[in-house]
Specification:
The complex is a heterodimer. By secondary structure, chain A is an all-alpha fold. Chain A is built from seven helices and no strands. Chain A has helices spanning 2-21, 25-46, 49-74, 78-87, 94-113, 126-134, 138-159. In chain A, helix 1 (2-21) runs antiparallel to helix 2. By secondary structure, chain B is mainly alpha-helical. Helix content of chain B is 77%, strand content 0%. Chain B has helices spanning 5-25, 29-54, 58-88. The longest helix of chain B is centred in the last third of the chain and has 31 residues, at 58-88. The chains are: A mainly alpha, B mainly alpha. The interface between A and B is large, with 82 and 68 residues.
Chain lengths: 171, 101
């Protein structure tokens, strides 16, 4: 069972690496979908099946679709791939990669310094999540609903077409 | 849990660093937003792993809230990307250098 976890984590890391190095944005989105699906599989093996299903539905199913819609609306075309090839030569990766790898090595060293914690439970029952959401975290649920409302109103207002008779003034 | 908690956190750290490199290197705004999604997802992995490690549901509830926040942020962020494309006809973030009063 642990080989499943390690295999899906390798797929996730590889897919994310491919995603950040693609020239075509649609290719990058497809690799991102693979990355999210492999992370969902990681959640399954770790014992959180509800969160794995939510990850597939919300992340891979709604957020990626939003990205694809925007990419269709923006409609870049093949000259954008040429432009990306100009921007992404080899030397541009060196600086951020070295700094980020230093951070990663620090993180791994810090994690390995702790004693290995004894593992406890296996699968968390989904009923627990529901009881938590209706009990201690009820305020968080209401706030999340208000946040979604704010996002909805904001996205609608930003995406509204301009009035033709107000072309002279800023809205 | 079937794997030690340290391994899950290290994997999440690697994915987070990949997203960070993507944000720092790419110039296309859509790629930057995608890398931010990757970073948020990696942070969520740590929450879910901690929830499974202690056998409680709190971490999964936190990941639920992260998911909600990510969805709202992506909606507003992509609307802003569309506005930016309408105004500047490019998705290059280096072109947005002026602030009109």
């Amino acid at each position: 069972m642990s080989t499943l976890f390690y295999l899906s984590s390798i797929v996730a890391v590889f897919a994310t690496t491919m995603m950040i190095t693609r020239l075509n944005p649609v290719h990058a989105l497809l690799y991102l979908v693979v990355s999210f699906l492999s992370v969902a599989l990681m959640f399954f093996t770790v014992g959180a099946p509800f969160i794995a299903a939510l990850e597939v539905i919300v992340y891979a199913g709604a957020i990626i679709v939003l990205f694809i819609f925007v990419m269709m609306l923006v409609n870049l075309g093949p000259e954008s791939a040429k432009q990306e090839r100009q921007w992404l030569n080899g030397s541009i990766w060196i600086g951020p990669s070295i700094l980020s790898l230093i951070l990663l090595i620090e993180l791994i060293v810090m994690i390995n310094q702790h004693q290995a914690l004894a593992p406890k439970g296996e699968i968390v029952p989904i009923k627990e999540i529901g009881i938590m959401l209706f009990g201690p975290y009820m305020l968080g649920v209401e706030l999340a609903a208000m946040l979604l409302l704010a996002g909805l109103v904001g996205a609608y207002h930003l995406g509204k077409p301009e009035e033709p008779n107000k072309a002279g003034e800023e809205s | 849990m079937i794997v030690p908690l340290d391994h899950v956190i290290i994997v999440a750290g690697i994915i987070f660093i990949m997203g960070l490199i993507g944000v720092l290197v790419r110039r296309n705004i859509l790629f930057i937003l995608m890398s931010v999604e990757v970073m948020l997802n990696a942070a969520g992995i740590v929450f879910v792993a901690a929830s499974s490690h202690w056998g409680e549901a709190d971490g999964q509830v936190m990941f639920l809230f992260i998911l909600v926040m990510t969805a709202a942020e992506v909606a507003v962020g992509l609307a802003l990307v569309l506005l930016m494309f309408k105004r500047y006809a490019t998705l290059d973030v280096d072109r947005i250098q002026e602030m009109k009063g």
